Amino acid sequence: MLEKHKRVAVEMGCEALEACLKSVGATLADLRHLCCVTSTGFLTPGLSALIIRRLGIDPHCSRADIVGMGCNAGLNALGVVSGWSAAHPGELGVVLCSEACSAAYALDGTMRTAVVNSLFGDGAAALAVVAGGGPARGPRVLKFESMIITDAVDAMRYDWDPAGGRFSFFLDPQIPYVVGAHAELVVDRLLSGTGLRRGDIGHWLVHSGGKKVIDAIVINLGLTRHDVRHTTGVLRDYGNLSSGSFLFSYERLAEEGVARPGDYGVMMTMGPGSTIETALIQW
Protein backbone atom coordinates (compact mmCIF):
# COMPACT_ATOMS: atom_id res chain seq x y z
CA MET A 1 0.00 0.00 0.00
CA LEU A 2 2.68 2.51 1.01
CA GLU A 3 4.86 1.68 -1.99
CA LYS A 4 1.95 2.33 -4.36
CA HIS A 5 1.17 5.60 -2.60
CA LYS A 6 4.78 6.75 -2.96
CA ARG A 7 5.04 5.78 -6.62
CA VAL A 8 1.65 7.05 -7.81
CA ALA A 9 1.47 10.19 -5.66
CA VAL A 10 4.94 11.33 -6.76
CA GLU A 11 4.25 10.60 -10.45
CA MET A 12 0.89 12.37 -10.45
CA GLY A 13 2.27 15.21 -8.36
CA CYS A 14 5.12 15.87 -10.76
CA GLU A 15 2.76 15.95 -13.73
CA ALA A 16 0.31 18.28 -11.96
CA LEU A 17 3.07 20.65 -10.83
CA GLU A 18 4.62 20.93 -14.28
CA ALA A 19 1.20 21.48 -15.89
CA CYS A 20 0.37 24.17 -13.34
CA LEU A 21 3.62 26.07 -13.93
CA LYS A 22 3.19 25.85 -17.69
CA SER A 23 -0.34 27.27 -17.43
CA VAL A 24 0.95 30.43 -15.72
CA GLY A 25 4.02 30.81 -17.92
CA ALA A 26 6.45 29.79 -15.18
CA THR A 27 9.20 27.19 -14.95
CA LEU A 28 10.54 24.98 -12.19
CA ALA A 29 13.29 27.56 -11.65
CA ASP A 30 10.66 30.15 -10.66
CA LEU A 31 9.25 28.04 -7.83
CA ARG A 32 10.04 29.37 -4.35
CA HIS A 33 7.60 27.45 -2.10
CA LEU A 34 5.94 24.06 -2.52
CA CYS A 35 3.19 22.85 -0.18
CA CYS A 36 2.18 19.23 -0.79
CA VAL A 37 -1.04 17.70 0.51
CA THR A 38 -1.93 14.03 0.82
CA SER A 39 -3.96 11.75 3.06
CA THR A 40 -3.45 8.41 1.34
CA GLY A 41 -0.09 7.53 2.87
CA PHE A 42 2.59 8.72 5.28
CA LEU A 43 6.13 9.29 4.04
CA THR A 44 9.24 10.72 5.67
CA PRO A 45 10.70 12.60 3.87
CA GLY A 46 7.40 13.78 2.46
CA LEU A 47 6.10 14.33 -1.06
CA SER A 48 7.62 17.81 -1.29
CA ALA A 49 11.17 16.50 -0.84
CA LEU A 50 10.61 13.57 -3.18
CA ILE A 51 9.13 15.78 -5.91
CA ILE A 52 11.87 18.40 -5.54
CA ARG A 53 14.46 15.66 -6.03
CA ARG A 54 12.62 14.01 -8.91
CA LEU A 55 12.20 17.23 -10.89
CA GLY A 56 15.54 18.78 -10.01
CA ILE A 57 13.97 21.81 -8.32
CA ASP A 58 16.31 24.17 -6.43
CA PRO A 59 17.04 22.36 -3.14
CA HIS A 60 16.70 25.70 -1.33
CA CYS A 61 13.01 25.86 -2.32
CA SER A 62 10.87 26.39 0.78
CA ARG A 63 8.49 23.50 1.37
CA ALA A 64 5.74 22.15 3.60
CA ASP A 65 3.78 18.91 3.79
CA ILE A 66 0.21 18.64 5.03
CA VAL A 67 -0.51 14.98 5.73
CA GLY A 68 -3.56 13.23 7.13
CA MET A 69 -6.01 16.13 7.34
CA GLY A 70 -8.29 14.54 4.74
CA CYS A 71 -10.48 15.91 1.97
CA ASN A 72 -10.62 19.39 3.48
CA ALA A 73 -6.84 19.86 3.47
CA GLY A 74 -6.52 21.58 0.10
CA LEU A 75 -7.96 24.77 1.58
CA ASN A 76 -5.80 24.41 4.67
CA ALA A 77 -2.81 24.33 2.31
CA LEU A 78 -4.09 27.35 0.41
CA GLY A 79 -4.16 29.20 3.73
CA VAL A 80 -0.55 28.21 4.41
CA VAL A 81 0.68 29.24 0.95
CA SER A 82 -1.34 32.47 0.97
CA GLY A 83 0.37 33.41 4.24
CA TRP A 84 3.79 32.53 2.83
CA SER A 85 3.07 34.53 -0.33
CA ALA A 86 1.99 37.59 1.65
CA ALA A 87 5.40 37.50 3.38
CA HIS A 88 7.19 37.02 0.03
CA PRO A 89 5.39 39.31 -2.45
CA GLY A 90 6.04 38.57 -6.09
CA GLU A 91 7.45 35.11 -5.40
CA LEU A 92 5.76 31.94 -6.66
CA GLY A 93 4.22 29.41 -4.29
CA VAL A 94 2.28 26.31 -5.28
CA VAL A 95 -0.37 24.21 -3.53
CA LEU A 96 -0.06 20.62 -4.75
CA CYS A 97 -2.63 17.97 -3.79
CA SER A 98 -1.70 14.42 -4.80
CA GLU A 99 -4.00 11.62 -3.65
CA ALA A 100 -3.42 7.97 -4.59
CA CYS A 101 -6.68 6.86 -3.00
CA SER A 102 -6.51 3.42 -4.62
CA ALA A 103 -3.42 2.72 -2.51
CA ALA A 104 -5.69 2.75 0.53
CA TYR A 105 -8.41 0.47 -0.87
CA ALA A 106 -9.25 -2.53 1.30
CA LEU A 107 -11.02 -5.74 0.31
CA ASP A 108 -12.91 -7.23 3.23
CA GLY A 109 -16.31 -8.07 1.79
CA THR A 110 -18.19 -5.45 3.81
CA MET A 111 -20.69 -2.99 2.35
CA ARG A 112 -18.92 -0.11 4.15
CA THR A 113 -15.63 -0.84 2.39
CA ALA A 114 -17.36 -1.38 -0.95
CA VAL A 115 -18.96 2.07 -0.71
CA VAL A 116 -15.65 3.71 0.20
CA ASN A 117 -13.76 1.98 -2.62
CA SER A 118 -16.42 2.98 -5.16
CA LEU A 119 -16.39 6.62 -4.04
CA PHE A 120 -12.71 7.59 -4.06
CA GLY A 121 -10.46 8.03 -7.09
CA ASP A 122 -6.82 8.92 -7.80
CA GLY A 123 -5.89 12.43 -8.83
CA ALA A 124 -3.50 15.34 -8.43
CA ALA A 125 -3.98 19.07 -8.91
CA ALA A 126 -1.88 22.17 -8.34
CA LEU A 127 -2.58 25.87 -7.90
CA ALA A 128 -0.08 28.72 -8.31
CA VAL A 129 -0.21 31.54 -5.74
CA VAL A 130 1.50 34.96 -5.97
CA ALA A 131 0.91 37.97 -3.74
CA GLY A 132 1.31 41.30 -5.53
CA GLY A 133 4.10 41.87 -7.99
CA GLY A 134 2.20 41.95 -11.28
CA PRO A 135 -1.17 41.44 -12.95
CA ALA A 136 -3.42 38.79 -11.44
CA ARG A 137 -4.05 35.67 -13.52
CA GLY A 138 -6.86 34.49 -11.31
CA PRO A 139 -8.96 35.47 -8.31
CA ARG A 140 -7.66 37.00 -5.09
CA VAL A 141 -8.12 35.19 -1.81
CA LEU A 142 -9.92 37.55 0.55
CA LYS A 143 -10.71 35.50 3.63
CA PHE A 144 -10.75 32.01 5.16
CA GLU A 145 -13.10 30.48 7.69
CA SER A 146 -12.99 27.05 9.36
CA MET A 147 -15.23 24.91 11.53
CA ILE A 148 -14.70 21.65 13.41
CA ILE A 149 -17.90 19.84 14.28
CA THR A 150 -16.60 18.46 17.54
CA ASP A 151 -19.69 16.36 18.25
CA ALA A 152 -18.91 14.38 15.09
CA VAL A 153 -15.15 14.10 15.48
CA ASP A 154 -15.23 10.29 15.09
CA ALA A 155 -17.89 10.14 12.38
CA MET A 156 -15.43 10.35 9.48
CA ARG A 157 -11.96 8.94 10.01
CA TYR A 158 -9.09 6.93 8.56
CA ASP A 159 -7.28 5.06 11.29
CA TRP A 160 -5.86 1.72 12.39
CA ASP A 161 -8.26 -1.22 12.52
CA PRO A 162 -6.69 -3.70 14.99
CA ALA A 163 -9.15 -6.43 14.05
CA GLY A 164 -8.24 -6.23 10.38
CA GLY A 165 -4.56 -5.42 10.96
CA ARG A 166 -4.66 -2.44 8.58
CA PHE A 167 -5.74 1.14 8.19
CA SER A 168 -9.42 1.52 7.38
CA PHE A 169 -11.72 4.37 6.38
CA PHE A 170 -14.88 4.82 8.44
CA LEU A 171 -17.77 6.97 7.23
CA ASP A 172 -20.87 7.38 9.36
CA PRO A 173 -24.05 7.31 7.21
CA GLN A 174 -25.20 10.52 8.94
CA ILE A 175 -22.19 12.56 7.80
CA PRO A 176 -23.90 14.21 4.80
CA TYR A 177 -26.64 15.56 7.06
CA VAL A 178 -24.20 16.65 9.78
CA VAL A 179 -22.05 18.56 7.27
CA GLY A 180 -25.09 20.04 5.56
CA ALA A 181 -26.60 21.22 8.83
CA HIS A 182 -23.43 23.17 9.70
CA ALA A 183 -22.68 24.57 6.24
CA GLU A 184 -24.76 27.69 6.81
CA LEU A 185 -22.91 28.53 10.01
CA VAL A 186 -19.45 28.57 8.46
CA VAL A 187 -20.52 30.32 5.24
CA ASP A 188 -22.38 33.02 7.14
CA ARG A 189 -19.27 33.52 9.29
CA LEU A 190 -17.15 33.72 6.12
CA LEU A 191 -19.37 36.47 4.71
CA SER A 192 -19.74 38.30 8.03
CA GLY A 193 -18.31 41.81 7.87
CA THR A 194 -17.97 41.77 4.08
CA GLY A 195 -21.40 43.23 3.27
CA LEU A 196 -22.06 40.20 1.09
CA ARG A 197 -24.98 37.80 1.15
CA ARG A 198 -25.06 34.29 -0.22
CA GLY A 199 -26.96 35.58 -3.24
CA ASP A 200 -23.99 37.81 -4.10
CA ILE A 201 -21.75 34.79 -4.63
CA GLY A 202 -21.56 34.03 -8.32
CA HIS A 203 -19.38 30.90 -8.20
CA TRP A 204 -19.39 27.97 -5.80
CA LEU A 205 -16.49 25.50 -5.78
CA VAL A 206 -17.51 22.71 -3.42
CA HIS A 207 -15.66 19.50 -2.61
CA SER A 208 -16.97 16.47 -4.53
CA GLY A 209 -17.56 14.49 -1.35
CA GLY A 210 -20.37 12.30 -2.65
CA LYS A 211 -23.93 12.72 -3.94
CA LYS A 212 -25.57 12.92 -0.52
CA VAL A 213 -23.00 15.42 0.76
CA ILE A 214 -23.47 17.64 -2.29
CA ASP A 215 -27.27 17.40 -1.99
CA ALA A 216 -27.08 18.42 1.68
CA ILE A 217 -24.92 21.44 0.85
CA VAL A 218 -27.27 22.50 -1.96
CA ILE A 219 -30.36 22.25 0.24
CA ASN A 220 -28.92 23.96 3.29
CA LEU A 221 -27.26 26.82 1.40
CA GLY A 222 -30.13 27.32 -1.05
CA LEU A 223 -27.93 26.66 -4.08
CA THR A 224 -29.00 25.50 -7.52
CA ARG A 225 -27.78 22.49 -9.47
CA HIS A 226 -26.08 24.95 -11.80
CA ASP A 227 -24.11 26.35 -8.86
CA VAL A 228 -22.55 22.93 -8.21
CA ARG A 229 -22.30 21.75 -11.82
CA HIS A 230 -18.52 21.40 -11.64
CA THR A 231 -18.67 19.66 -8.26
CA THR A 232 -21.06 17.03 -9.57
CA GLY A 233 -19.18 16.76 -12.86
CA VAL A 234 -15.89 16.00 -11.12
CA LEU A 235 -17.60 13.40 -8.92
CA ARG A 236 -19.18 11.78 -11.98
CA ASP A 237 -16.00 11.71 -14.05
CA TYR A 238 -13.35 10.96 -11.42
CA GLY A 239 -14.96 10.21 -8.06
CA ASN A 240 -13.99 11.84 -4.78
CA LEU A 241 -10.38 12.96 -5.31
CA SER A 242 -9.93 13.89 -1.67
CA SER A 243 -8.00 17.13 -1.05
CA GLY A 244 -7.67 18.09 -4.72
CA SER A 245 -11.34 17.78 -5.73
CA PHE A 246 -12.14 21.49 -5.42
CA LEU A 247 -9.17 22.37 -7.65
CA PHE A 248 -10.56 20.15 -10.40
CA SER A 249 -13.81 22.13 -10.11
CA TYR A 250 -11.86 25.39 -10.22
CA GLU A 251 -10.11 24.27 -13.41
CA ARG A 252 -13.46 23.58 -15.08
CA LEU A 253 -14.78 26.98 -14.04
CA ALA A 254 -11.65 28.65 -15.41
CA GLU A 255 -12.06 26.81 -18.71
CA GLU A 256 -15.65 28.07 -19.00
CA GLY A 257 -14.43 31.66 -18.93
CA VAL A 258 -17.63 32.88 -17.25
CA ALA A 259 -16.05 34.56 -14.21
CA ARG A 260 -15.86 38.33 -14.66
CA PRO A 261 -13.79 40.97 -12.86
CA GLY A 262 -15.48 41.76 -9.57
CA ASP A 263 -17.27 38.38 -9.27
CA TYR A 264 -17.15 36.68 -5.89
CA GLY A 265 -16.72 32.97 -5.27
CA VAL A 266 -16.73 30.59 -2.34
CA MET A 267 -14.50 27.54 -2.08
CA MET A 268 -15.68 24.87 0.35
CA THR A 269 -14.09 21.59 1.40
CA MET A 270 -15.23 19.04 3.96
CA GLY A 271 -13.36 16.25 5.70
CA PRO A 272 -12.62 14.24 8.84
CA GLY A 273 -13.08 15.88 12.18
CA SER A 274 -15.74 16.49 10.96
CA THR A 275 -14.53 19.74 9.40
CA ILE A 276 -15.61 22.39 6.94
CA GLU A 277 -13.11 24.80 5.36
CA THR A 278 -14.08 27.83 3.28
CA ALA A 279 -12.43 30.64 1.36
CA LEU A 280 -13.87 33.80 -0.14
CA ILE A 281 -12.31 34.78 -3.46
CA GLN A 282 -12.81 37.61 -5.95
CA TRP A 283 -11.85 37.94 -9.60
Give the integer mean of the pLDDT values.
91
Strand content: 15-25%
Radius of gyration: 18 Å
What portion of residues is helical? 25-40%
Helical segment count: 8
Overall shape: globular
- End-to-end separation in angstroms reads 41 Å
Reading side by side through the largest sheet, how are the strands ordered? 2-1-3-4
Count of individual beta strands: 10
Can you summarize the main beta sheet? 4 strands, mixed
Query: What low-confidence regions span 5 or more consecutive residues with pLDDT below 50?
Result: none
* String of helices and strands: HEHEHEHEEEEHEHHHEE
Pairing-aware structural class of the strands and helices? alpha/beta
Can you offer a commentary on this structure?
With 283 residues, the chain is an alpha/beta fold. It is built from 8 helices and 10 strands. The protein has helices at 2-23, 47-55, 73-87, 111-119, 175-191, 211-221, 229-238, 245-256, and strands spanning 31-38, 62-67, 92-99, 123-129, 140-148, 156-161, 166-171, 203-206, 264-271, 275-282. The strands form 3 sheets. A 4-stranded mixed sheet has the order 2-1-3-4, with helices on both faces. The chain has a 4-stranded mixed sheet with strand order 5-10-9-8, sandwiched between helices. It has a two-stranded antiparallel sheet with strand order 6-7. A hairpin with a 4-residue loop joins strand 6 and strand 7 (166-171). Helix 5 packs across helix 6. The radius of gyration is 18 Å and the shape is globular. The termini are far apart.
